[in-house]
Amino acid sequence: MNQHLTISPSQAADRLAIRELVETYAHCADRRDANGQISLFTADTHFAVYMNAKDPKPSQELNSREALAPVFADLNKYVATMHFVGQSTILSLTDDRGTGEAYCLPHHLTVDGDKRHLMIAALRYYDTFAKMDGSWLFAERLLYVDWLEGRVLS
Fold first, then answer.
1. What are phi and psi of 126, to 5 degrees?
2. Do the beta carbons of residue 75 and residue 83 sit within 8 Å?
């Protein structure tokens, strides 16, 4: 655990901006704002999904901001989503680079006639952040799925 006996206003602002970056990603996902999500990444971003968090090989890997569009558009198959962002830890931070880990419990609702189904995922993101032109962006986002849960809703 980091001990912050003193922290500069600049460091505090960077930490807040990174937390807001993580939260904005979830907000854009729930609002189906794919362009907003895409804008949170560097042009040469690396995004990988590990559907099995214990498998060292990603199930999906993308290497540009533009390649993210179909991934984010895929959320449109759900009637609604709600991403609960849990703890978000900054692991390292310099003036223009940082790393962190964030936990998320996204809820995905599907409706088929009068049948409603909820899928909840337990996710961890390992992030690398880059500060570009005064704004923090995702330079790399590794998404690990720890487990999935399905529920039939009444």
1. -105, 115
2. no
pLDDT reported for residue 6: 87
Q: How many residues does the chain have?
A: 154
Q: What is the sign of the dihedral through the CA atoms of 60, 122, 28 and 93? A: negative
Residues contacting residue 70 through CB under 8 Å, at least 6 positions apart: none
Neighbour count for residue 127 (Cβ, 10 Å): 22
Q: What is the C-alpha separation between 100 and 104, in angstroms, rounded?
A: 13
The per-residue pLDDT for range 30-49, each reduced to its tens digit, is 999 999 999 999 999 999 99
Residue 144 near residue 124, CB atoms below 8 Å: yes
Contacts of 145 (CB under 8 A, 6+ apart): 49, 50, 51, 52, 53, 121, 122, 123
| Predicted structure pTM score | 0.93
Cβ-contact 93, 11 below 8 angstroms: yes
Stated as kind and residue range, the H or E segment containing 33 is none
- Residue closest to 138 by CA, chosen among 83, 92, 98, 90: 98
Residue 154 is predicted with a pLDDT of: 84
